[in-house]
Amino acid sequence: MSRRKTERQLNLVICLLSTRRHLTAQEIRTTVLGYAEAESESAFKRMFERDKRELRDSGIPIQVGTGDAVSGEEGYRISRTDYELPEIELLPDEALVLGLAARAWRHASLGEAAANALFKLRAAGVPVDTEAAPGLTPAMRTDEPSFGPVWQAVRDRRPIAFDYRKPGQGTAERREVEPWGIVNLRGHWYVVGHDRMRDARRVFRLGRVRGEVSVLRGGPDVVVPEGVDLRSVVAGQRAEPERSAVVRVRTDAAHDLRRVALRVAPGERDTSGGGWDTLTLPYSDTPDLVRRVASFGARAVVVEPAGAREAIAAHLAATAEPADPSEGSDGPAADAGSGAPARGPRSADQLRRLLMLVPYALGRDVRVPEVAAHFGLSEKQVVADLSLLWMCGLPGYTPGDLIDVDLDAARETGEIIIGNADTLAQPLRLTADEAASLVVGLSLLEALPEAEGLEGGALKRVGEKLRAAAGAAVASLADAVQVRVEVDEQVAATQRRCADALHSGQRLHLRYLSGYLDQVTERDVDPMGLVVQDGYPFLEGYCHLRGDVRLFRLDRVLELTVLPEAARVPEGVGRRDLSAGVLQRSERDTLVTLDLDPSARWVTEDYVCESVAELPGGGVRATLRTPAPAWVVRLALALGSSCRVAAPAGVAGEVRAEAARALAHYGAGAVR
């Protein structure tokens, strides 16, 4: 946006806020500084229409009424009632909750909207502290490129069209959907709506959308059926186990299978303490059972049913086949192209910055560095914004009409001093995106133990106040965007004990199941904070076993003991930067390249990849980093012939060798 355009639009806002009647377009042309640049009537109309549209897109409510009683020509004004943020009074516990809700979006696509909402609330005198409760880190991620346009479509009640690839399909299919809402379940975003082409209710995972999402502007608005529970619709997509299998597993192995088994029967032990245990394992379909058991290689064997036993033997035989001559080179992997398209820098619109800055700075001690940090600008750019503000004001544009800005103070001491700006003294009301980002963020807090301790239902109270301040449209949007964090009672109890230890400053002892390896370790951990991200709660703490800060997924904590010992985090050790997610990648990690068939494309949706490139036939070549190559072996064993390790050669060889060892359990004379 050019400087002159920003000046003109800001002058238009000030003019329409200060007028008591509707001004015609011609009155605006002759009154508002900047429109004289239009060389013709048609040029002015284009300029004025564009300005109105952009102001409305920024949440500025321009009213249309009768401007000339004689001719009936329409006019324009901005009602202060519609423009200004209504008064919101928050109790201390409500202010804490609101700050946490905004932090949930800090590293996601709605982070700017949430931050701007808090900026406006602070300008209105609401005491919101985003750094309160530093031990808690609610976090939402919106890595899917389709999230933005789908959110926009849900907000505006518009249909959408996109290409969608179902698991196992070689090609994507075109879908046209009337979106009812979007739901986050276990860290993945889904859109729920009416599929026009199938005339039925459908759920689509956003990570499986291919290419751009088109928002369809023609036709009537989308109508959401009454009584639709979005979260239940998404949760209902998962098949419930209907059958059970008998699986033998090695002692101290296959821990993920043990945790979901209906029954565990210990077997005889040899002199070294090893042996086999027998599990009764629920499952919904045979391919899923095969993948789960195959991932443990020779440490797990299906005994019955016979059909599942035959299926896993065939699966392992295909995995153990000799390598293709071109497979598994230790040289550089083939160019895999780029992954998701790079996102450009996100910066606040200059006009909206100024409309927030003026009420925030009036009567407060505000400094240039503070504003620069909030908006992600250089201090030089903030001073440039202030110099633009200095050229705007009420029609007439004499020294007494213009906004007064002390530019010398801003340049020399960093102090922001603004005067003669009563027209803009009240902050602009929250936009739909800003208010909804906070309301949706509140739902994530329900998974935090501290939510139980908030007296008088602060979560509910602050949500109601936000909805009342933002209007019915925002309430509708907030209801259409839901977050479901599923935590069973055991995990909830573990979470509460971690919160208590964090509060009392005590060390914890964990018996922990590694997410990478089929291995249980004993850890002494000094708790530093609680994190909820990607649908899972984590404990963040200093791990004495690893000598570093680690994140522990609480559903993998098998046992937890609060030790009678004070936690002592080493000096200089701080919490992790989670802007890139919970998974912390390093240049020291092993670089692995996988060739995936269409049925295994989901790997690129569930795991962070360095790059993804299309292969003939609908497959992909995915390159990722991992600190534990053994985890890749388990993944490849589960995927079977639908995955080939292209590099490094050592990992590819270990996959085939482990598949052969497992296959030996299914040969003639094998123990069942």
Structural description of this entry:
The chain has 672 residues and is α+β, with helices and mostly antiparallel strands. Helix content is 35%, strand content 24%. The protein has 22 helices and 27 strands. Strands 4, 19, 20, 21, 22 and 23 form a six-stranded mixed sheet that branches. Strands 5, 6, 7, 8, 9 and 18 form a six-stranded mixed sheet that branches. A hairpin with an 8-residue loop joins strand 5 (160-164) and strand 6 (173-185). Helix 1 (3-18) crosses helix 12. Mean pLDDT is 84; it is low at 326-348.
In brief:
This protein has 672 residues and is α+β, with helices and mostly antiparallel strands.
Q: Care to count the β-strands? A: 27
Q: What proportion of the residues form beta strands (DSSP E)?
A: 15-25%
What would you call the shape? elongated
Question: Which regions contain 5 or more consecutive residues with pLDDT less than 50?
Answer: 326-348
- Taking all Cα atoms into account, the compactness measure Rg is 30 Å
Distance between the termini: 73 Å
Largest sheet: 6 strands, mixed
